[in-house]
Amino acid sequence: MMNRTEGRGLRTEPRSRVGLTQPSVLSPQSSEFGFTLIELIIVIIIIVLLMGLFLNRALFYQEQAEKTAMEQVAGAIQSALTLQYGQIMTRGKQSDTAALAQDNPMNWLQRKPGNYSGEFYDPTPLAVAAGNWVFDLKSRELIYVLRNTHYFKPGKDGKQWIRFHVAVSYEASRLPSLQGTPPELTGILFKPVEPYSWF
Questions:
Q1: Closest CA to 133 of 148, 151, 150, 114
Q2: Strand ranges across the sheet with 161-171
Q3: Strand, helix or coil for residue 119
Q4: This model's pTM is above 0.85
Q5: Extents of the domains making up the chain
Q6: How many CA atoms lie within 13 A of 151 on its CB side?
Q7: pLDDT reported for residue 171
Q8: Tens of pLDDT along 76-128?
């Protein structure tokens, strides 16, 4: 007797139970993946090391940004000082240079920086908020109190600040006929009182 599907041109193979294979089931032991205690400790150590490197670099760049901002203000003051000196030379009153050297350099700026705290008489680093400028009425110096001091090496006073002043340089006349005249003004600079080391 012919199968109905064979009569239509289709052939079916009889099923045999021997050729059937069931999908393999993984044993519970082979499907479990996990960390041993040693592997977990190694991962934690690596994460801690990477975080330490990241924080160290972040502190370095934060300090570099503060140094750049401070030097920009100092550069603006130097430009303002040059303009003030030019006005003195235009008027022909070199005697005003001594008063210029004693003046508060923040007065020369068209707009004072937001981190300028004002004038103090003989301030200490603790009296001024970190990251601010202050003018010392006693020494007539402009002071920047540092916020980030990880890479800063303090000066002789051991304090975490940088003191700036106006340095005026004079030169005596070399001509014999003009030796009795007062010394000639050769330059004026806004610069640190002592060189600072801030990497």
A1: 114
A2: 116-120, 133-136, 141-145, 161-171, 184-192
A3: strand
A4: no
A5: 69-198
A6: 14
A7: 78
A8: 999 999 999 888 888 877 778 888 899 999 999 999 999 999 999 999 988 99
Distance between CA atoms of 69 and 88, rounded to whole angstroms? 29
The H or E element containing residue 141 is strand 141-145
Residue 66 contacts residue 146 (beta carbons within 8 Å): yes
**E-strand stretches of 12-140:** 116-120, 133-136
Angle at 32 between CA 26 and CA 35, to 5 degrees: 160
120 forms beta bridges with: 136
Separation between Cα atoms, residue 124 and residue 134, nearest integer Å? 10
Task: Give the angle 183-188-191 at the CA atoms, nearest 5°.
Answer: 135
Q: Which pair of tokens denotes residue 194?
A: 């002592």
DSSP three-state, residue 186: strand
Of residues 109, 133, 131, 113, the one with CA closest to residue 123: 133
In the numeric block, which tokens belong to residue 138? 């006693």
Q: Which secondary-structure segment (H or E) carries 187?
A: strand 184-192
Model confidence at 1, pLDDT cuts 50, 70, 90, reads very low
The string of pLDDT tens digits covering residues 24-71 is 555 455 445 677 889 889 999 999 999 988 888 888 899 999 999 999
Query: Identity (one letter) of the amino acid at 117?
Result: S
Matching residue, tokens 């202050």: 134
